[in-house]
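Final report, results section. Input specification for complex C-07:
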Amino acid sequence: MAGYIPIPSFEELTDRIHSLPGVGRKTAERIAYHIVGMDDKEIDKLVGSIMTVHEKIHRCSVCGNYTDKEVCYICSDEGRDESVICVVEKPRDIISFERSGVLNCKYHVLHGLLSPSMRLKPSDLGIDSLVERVKNGSVKEVIMATDPSVAGEATAIYVSKLLKPLGVKVTRLGYGLSVGAELQYADEVTLSRSLDSRCEL
Amino acid sequence: MAGYIPIPSFEELTDRIHSLPGVGRKTAERIAYHIVGMDDKEIDKLVGSIMTVHEKIHRCSVCGNYTDKEVCYICSDEGRDESVICVVEKPRDIISFERSGVLNCKYHVLHGLLSPSMRLKPSDLGIDSLVERVKNGSVKEVIMATDPSVAGEATAIYVSKLLKPLGVKVTRLGYGLSVGAELQYADEVTLSRSLDSRCEL
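Structure output:
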């Protein structure tokens, strides 16, 4: 099958696009062709947009969510219930909750999960800063909203063991979620039900 | 639904990715998050790859296919039958033929189709250079391999009227193709059959 577009730079771009999440080989090729056909202005805008995001967006110093400020808009929002922290694996998961509108609390992003193979150690995740927040704040409940997978469960249990001695209630999402699914694809009703049926760890 | 990621640069990147072909809103968001999480080196590679392709790849001076040289690898290939030119709408369509292995001829890329609304004029397409190639070369047959759509048919007929007076045989792909489909998604067998049943215009 090789040899029909023997342009190394084109092949490389196709490979890079293919390595982005959710992009198949055929779509990657289509996008690469589209990029070749773009004019200078469009390329500048696309590249500029990537560079700007890369330079400006970083982790919130409080919760780990992505932000272009020192502290993200959720941590800066005084209208939220500070006594509840919802802990998620990745920033994208916050959107699912915010879209569902069922929570009006603060969040904490771990940026990963503890896995049985332990490729990520507890110190690699945002666990220390979570413990600090619970120690210093007026937190009454921590909702562990990690994926309902082995790694998600393991992480939830690990974190709960650290937090419970601090006198805080630790819950996890109820099994309205289908086991093995990824949180980011859950619909709003399922998310809402899973919040209702959350149980203490 | 607005307001859950109030970071303008992030929204802009998501919009730009969403505007690429074949990328839905959810996938665009996922890719944007992925880009935020990429390190300096990965970003440099992605951006560098886009810039390189944009700078190096342009249209072949003979046939209009994309190439990083003055003349593309197909036009430079002396092992091909120079008496047949297969005319396609876009460079991507050439890949479909090359993959099928049923043709060993030269190509010509129009970079668009004449539409009933005439948004593209004949002078906007690679028609003049096709006429020159037929006039100056040893071409015996031109296969019009435009999409089997209204615009594709209209373009094939328009081009055939220009070429026939030059004493060249002009054919179009046989209707092994399903009407209304896009050429780039045709499978190899269908493409091969449509070549067998090509008919004179």
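Chain B is about 40% helix and 15% strand. Chain B touches chain A through 51 residues (CB under 8 Å). This concludes the modelling results for the funded period.
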